């Protein structure tokens, strides 16, 4: 059940920071709680995963996050939801080796009666800085 209540910026930043920490720690249980069952995760490569596909890829070692940072975070109140945008830098380990990702991220967080969950994440690559 969705509760129609305004999201506070501090709430959004708290859950996003918890998600980023869980990503780098490989904490799939926390990610499972923070990500809505209906969520879509659009990677900087353009690949789209459901929540379950994304978590399965992490669980099977298709990739893992060695480090993730979020810079210039900005929230927009959408009532029972909020949009969070920021610049992400990530070091992702694939079976073929590490890959550095620099992207602009938009995350949509929605408040439910039992917490705040990620509904959508869109990651757009930013060209390498000269």
UniProtKB/TrEMBL annotation:
Q: Give a Pfam family name.
A: DUF4440
Q: Which residues form the DUF4440 domain?
A: 12-115
Gene3D superfamilies noted in UniProt: 3.10.450.50
Top-level taxon of the source organism: Bacteria
InterPro entries linked? DUF4440, NTF2-like_dom_sf
Q: What is this protein called?
A: Nuclear transport factor 2 family protein
